[in-house]
Amino acid sequence: MKNAEKLVFTIQQVARILDVVPGTIRNWEREQLFIARRGKNNYRIYDFKDISLLKRIKELSIERRLNYDIIRQMLITEIAEQKARLEDNAVEKAAGARKFLSRKWRQMRLEANKTLEEVSSAVGISPSYLSKIENGHANISFEILERLAEFYGQNILFFFEENGTTRKQIGITEGTPVDIGLAGVHIRNLVAIKDAHLKAMLYSVEPQCGNVHDHSHFGEEFLHVLEGEILFTLNDNEEYRLRAGDSFFFHSKEKHRWINPGEKTARLIWIYSPFP
Q: What is the DSSP letter of 5?
């Protein structure tokens, strides 16, 4: 299984979830409150985001008894406001991340005594593009980030580590957030001590999210699932479905990818070692 398919529902299944009849959902679509996507055989299909929106429509139309013109305008306003908030947060977050990461990438290259040409050739980009990345003037894809991590012999999370502290005890909600650019994957660093030889991370992975691209690097990894489930694939031919209470160990040099195949958010402790 190279890529887990996104979980979708039929109109009958969504109707049961919302406790309405399918005709009600079709009527909302006729009133242009919602436009369903079409799958094979032209059947309507819905994902979790669609269901969330339909729940809102049900609240406004059935529970609050608002007319469709008002509902339509409210939805347009709410969606526009949500989009604006996400865009503002994304711009601010991306700028801060680029500034921090650019310093670290340049530091890594200089410590390795490598030129722009040597590193860019190894990871398959141009020297000018790498220079822009190191100066915080260009975005970087997750794939290029993985190649840089492999080139420097590091786990990808190394690039997102701050200098660290001397705190030995950290509450599970206190860990420093770490953003590695994977949609729906939220990470907190639980080991903030400088020069620690392992890292422990708290992962919260939303349904149908994860890292579906094969990758490998230096080190060993151990994870323990607290809630939900994770589908782990090693070397293209080994699959492990991990559920709450399960633990898993593997060598990081093995090609691996993973995804949350369930319907609820998965939470797990992920430990990397050694972690220079």
A: P
